[in-house]
Amino acid sequence: MYMKLQLALDRLTEKECLSVLEETKESIDIIEVGTGVIKEYGMSIVRTIRELYPDRLIVADMKTCDAGKHEALQAFEAGADITTVMAFSADATITDTLEIAKETGNRVMLDLLEVHARDRIAELEGLGVELVSLHVGKDRQAEERFNTELFSLVSGYNFEVTVAGGINLDTLPDIIQENPDTIIVGSAITKAKNPGEVAAEIKEMLKTN
To answer: What is the Cα–Cα distance from 60 to 46, expressed in whole angstroms?
Structure first.
């Protein structure tokens, strides 16, 4: 099974989101509607993208840390297949979202942003978490890009692993060697002069490794 490419749409206008999607649609496997975009446009942009791309997996990057049932339902009813929950959230928030996902036939991705303790990873596994994101946040990227040492946090666990955090054509080769399930790329594609070409190049790298 090849690594999937997830396009993160963030810090963009709705028009820009739709334009980038049109240019990259042949190369991407999963569409992520970023937190900033959701805060600007609400669930309406998730609905719009669902209507335009009915057969694509859509992630609503809600970054939920409370009111789990309500926010998960918001995302799923708008057409998202996956919603995100912060791993530092209360266990009840995580189990509530997992329950809603199971009831609706959808999934929850646990964002490991700023989680560094293996004990917490063990707790997440015990709660029934299956999908996680190793994530270096935007503000942190000024100091560091995605470092493959992050993979040690989840080694030995049977999670489906996605990776995110300033990933680009230069940093991608080292990350590919760790064999994650999904690579999340944002500005390296969305801010490129030719997003379609960059997305195609990244996709080809994932196929050949």
So the answer is: 7
